[in-house]
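Fold it.
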Amino acid sequence: MSRADEIACGLVAHLRTTLGRPGLELAVPPVPLTGGFDTEIVTFQLRAGPAAWAGPLVLRILRAHHDPAMVLREQATQNTLADLGYPAPRVLLATLDPAPLGAPFLVMARIPGVQLISAGLIGMHRALLDAQRRLHALDAAPLARALGDAATFEGYLAALERRIERAALTGLAASMRWLREHRPPPAPLAICHGDLHPQNILVEGGRVSGVLDWPNAIVAEPAFDVASTRNILRFVPAGLASVPRGLRWLARVGQPVLAARYVAGYRKRQPIAANRLAYYEVAAAMRALVRAGETRSRAAGGPPLGPLDRSAYAARLAAHATRVSGVAVTLPPAPGEP
């Protein structure tokens, strides 16, 4: 049985029971969607389901190494944002039970639109700014209540420290001490996506129609979110983006220009001191570096590395964090390295 057939059978059986609809069927079978370095993503459509489940839907299945509670966090985050009027897809179902599909999963509405990165480079920074400014203008209190301490920047640092200790990533411990010792004074807080980039933004008719992929959302200083996006725009290899192969040279040339225009555009409305932005670039980089360290540590007996894991992204971030902080960052060797 193919993976698509496994998903179809397990999903239909689970939804028939969960929704109390024994006659429920698939109107459109599961079709894989691009993106999702850490999740398996498919789109599908139901027949004879509840009204709220009409139309195209998206299924996100966690990879085996993730904390199952992530699906509940994403549900709380996305539904809180949807309630606030932000274009995050509403989650219709989140289950921790791995039995139906082999891992915890989410079902959510599918928002119409195409990925911003597929819409062309012209105006990309303006769409990024629109999505981010709208997010930062929201009242952060409802999300803070929904997620509790895990949604704070303090909770973010503490979680990284626990992961570093658990995976014995000693080459990252000094950087975490640097973050503790150089933390900027408190500033107004906002909802931060934590991973906002052109592949997580949908556009339709020249406007932002949806923002996807919320597992890294926290309530923090907006500079943290700007720094995270800047890191991604500058350091993710162009070949990983959904750009036609023949145009990747243009993406490589355009990356630093896009990052500079994006940051300048944000600062025009909301000034960010250079030292604060630099601090949060290191803080945002640490999440990706911890993830890279964990992935490399379990690579020998774990799942195959994804494209992001095999890329130069972690090395570029490590070099940048070292330059900014003056603290050397070292990771376990990638598979195949001495």
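The longest strand covers residues 39-47.
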